[in-house]
UniProtKB/TrEMBL annotation:
CDD domains: PIN_YEN1 (cd09870). SMART domains: XPGI. GO terms for molecular function: 5'-flap endonuclease activity. This is XPG-I domain-containing protein. GO terms for biological process: DNA repair. Residues 61-135 form the XPG-I domain. InterPro entries: 5-3_exonuclease_C_sf (IPR036279), PIN-like_dom_sf (IPR029060), XPG-I_dom (IPR006086), XPG/Rad2 (IPR006084). Signal peptide: none annotated.
């Protein structure tokens, strides 16, 4: 817009920071660090900082607002800080933050004029969606439905089926199969066998329907253990 000046993105950032500065809260901004993934959302991630990093940091300094650099991804760093009680909530529009272990998430990064902010908590999600939807459950959901590290996921598996697999108790087995085991490939083979059985026969009735075709087409290479590990053990400070 011609009235936005030479740097409309920075102008917008200043307005958002000014709105935050007027609220009775302490804010910490977090930036992606040097060890961030090289590939994300099927796109190559530059090793260089985005051009807005330094200018926005100077703006935050001017407002006396704290900022930190994560070792890798900001979402993972903030999720850890939230889980450890260092911060009360994470403000982001990226739902992957629950996969990293966040407990309370605020959505409205644009700070709309009416100041309406949606609050999501891990406890409420478990109460209203599924009691078995702990962090491992979120990881299984991300692996099956697709996420930042693998947008494809399990082809043909929607959110309802993935949630059914969580309710069947298969999330813990997935995470165990990719960590602290002598043979990851064999552990995942056993896990896939269990998944196929639940998809084809739904013995616990927690999926709600039979998915024999999905059971047959489940690839012997699913999931990529590196994707699971990226969610389970992210690089954090």
């Amino acid at each position: 817009h011609p009235r936005s000046g030479q740097n409309p993105a920075l102008r917008s950032f200043i307005y958002r920071v000014a709105r935050l500065a007027r609220l009775p809260i302490n804010v910490i901004f977090c930036y992606d660090g040097k060890e961030r993934p090289t590939i994300k959302r099927n796109m190559k991630v530059s090793k260089s900082d985005h051009w807005m990093v330094r200018p926005t940091q100077r703006i935050l300094d001017a407002f006396n607002i704290q900022w930190v650099m994560a070792r890798s991804e900001a979402e993972a760093e903030l999720a850890l800080m939230n889980k450890e009680g260092i911060i009360d909530a994470v403000m982001t529009d990226d739902s992957d933050v629950f996969v990293f272990g966040a407990q309370t998430v605020l959505q409205n990064s644009t700070l709309s004029p009416d100041d309406t902010i949606k609050v999501y908590t891990a406890d409420t999600i478990r109460e209203r969606v599924a009691r078995s939807l702990h962090r491992e459950g979120f990881i299984l959901m991300a692996v099956c439905c697709g996420g930042d590290y693998d947008q494809t996921g399990l082809r043909g598996c929607g959110c309802n089926t993935a949630l059914g697999l969580v309710r069947c108790g298969l999330a813990h087995g997935l995470c165990n199969a990719t960590s602290n085991v002598p043979d990851v490939a064999d552990s995942l083979r056993v896990w896939r066998r269990d998944v196929r059985d639940h998809l084809a026969h739904d013995p616990t009735k927690r999926i709600g329907r039979l998915r024999p075709t999905l059971a047959r087409t489940l690839s012997d290479t699913f999931p990529d253990p590196n994707v699971v590990s990226s969610y389970l053990d992210p690089v954090v400070s």
